[in-house]
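Just scan my protein:

. . .
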Amino acid sequence: MDVQFVKDLIGSAWGIALVIIFFGGSIFVHELGHFLAARRRGLKIERFSIGFGPRIFGWTGKDGVDYRVALIPLGGYVALPQLADMEGIEGTNSEETEALPKISYPDKMIVAVMGAVFNVIFAFVLATILWFTGLPVPEGSGNTVIGYVPEQVVTSSDHLAELGLGQTVTGPAFKAGLRAGDKVISVDDKPVASFTDISKAVTLGNRKDAQGNPTSTFIIERDGKTMEVVLQPVRVEMNARTGDRVRSTAIQPRMSVILDTPMKGSPAEQAGLRAGDQILAVDQKPINNPTEFRELLRKGGAGQHELRIRRNQREELTVKITPKINAIVNPVSVIAYGDNDHRHSLIVVPVTRNLLDKNPEAKRDQLMVLGVSPEDPAFTESLRIGTIIDKIDGRELVAVHSLDDLDHIATSGTRDLTLYWRRQNGDAGNLPLKNAEIRRGQPVEHAQIGTQLLLQTETVYQNPWKTCMGIIGDTFTTLGRLFDRGSDIQVKQLASVISITKAYYNLSDDVRRVLWFTVLINLNLAVLNLLPIPVLDGGHMLIATIQRLWKNALSSQAVIILQYTFMVLLLSLMGYIILHDVRRCSGDSELQLRQQILERHVYKPVDFTPSR
């Protein structure tokens, strides 16, 4: 059996288990609030359900309540026939609603609000636990000091930057004048206390200039002086399939540069560097971030550099090192095509056998599509990653199995080509490429010293009240941005149970991160359920208030129509969000496959063996 398949299966099962325990537990806590409040107020309780739809399993308690787990895991409910008639959603009631006594306005309000109250209490308890245990975060996240300001920013998520094919723009923070060592005081008039706050403020920003470009106003402290800096964040693509884009400045926090064990024969080993050494400066320039360190070495080329290091956290040394300059990837070919205003680059790589072919004897060379940059909607399905190029129709039909074959086809200038393709599932076809031009990609060269850099973490101990209030504030801000034309936040970017499952799995290596995410989930559930929308708890409270203020303003029939109408709208919204989540998963899978192809067929093995 495939070892990777087993690992993926175990990982998926663990992610699902975490969702059942923590997300399902959060829903249980919410419904428990309604249940206990209803019992305390003497209401008739028909059913306690985790999930909607048909019953999977359950039991009837001595109290006559039908306790069940239902098929659709998108929430839950406590069936209270005196509170609202939701027979079509919650199932048939055993007694006629009219036969039950009417309940008071305070009863309705208390029962409706207690679900959210229990979520808040649960979140506060978990946040209190994290206050004592601490929450691990990337180093530098706990303060607002800038460690690195990139001169160029990659705006696409296609992992092609190493091939020299990524879409880049001038770094907005660098262009605006921000520099390493600046301390950020506020973003868009909102005080920030951590680098996480900075990122959230930029992402959720809604300011634009006269031309419609996004802007962010930073108040910073530099050399004891306070100054204002207005910059234009870039929109960074997070997923090619959904087109999700978020605002970013790409600045990074101040972080330690710690070396891992040097490789045999590497410049790092020859210079006497050791695992755990901290780089303090390069050529007398202080270093504040690992990315800054790599970039300084790359710009310096193959010349000798002087490193000031700290060893064993106390001893400071100066060493000289000469990096080895080379590209870390093998050549690729690029077929540029399209009109002058809409040019696309089809990136193809040589593989000795199809990555998806499980037959180890299939050794025939072939060319595989790595991606199209920027993505071409017209050819999205035909030219998706993993597609094999068989032939190109130039002056004659030419079989292509290598980059050299493409070079032989290439001529000066541009011309129309017909590309013949196929995939493992048997699909095949041909595509006309207008104004096509074939060339070799120019991989980015790096200065390599032969050792990895270790990422450090730090532990933050945040007051639970501050944690909860911060999340609630961010939730309201996000909801507001959904209806703000100046924002880049869209409904399709909201998370469904699919994204929640992935998040739990990705955080599963540390239970403290899982607890923090559960705090986030519970507070979001509390806020969303209190929105004044029929079907939700806030809607029940709104209807009850209207009926109290204006007698007979809403008949029972009108309430039922409202409930059904908004339930259909809510389920439609959930379906829309889930659809985009599925597409997002597809995009993530393509990114993983692309990285796998790069690692197997494009990235060069590092070798510092002296040449003879």
User: Anything to note?
Assistant: The mean pLDDT is 84. Residues 3-134+502-590 form one domain.
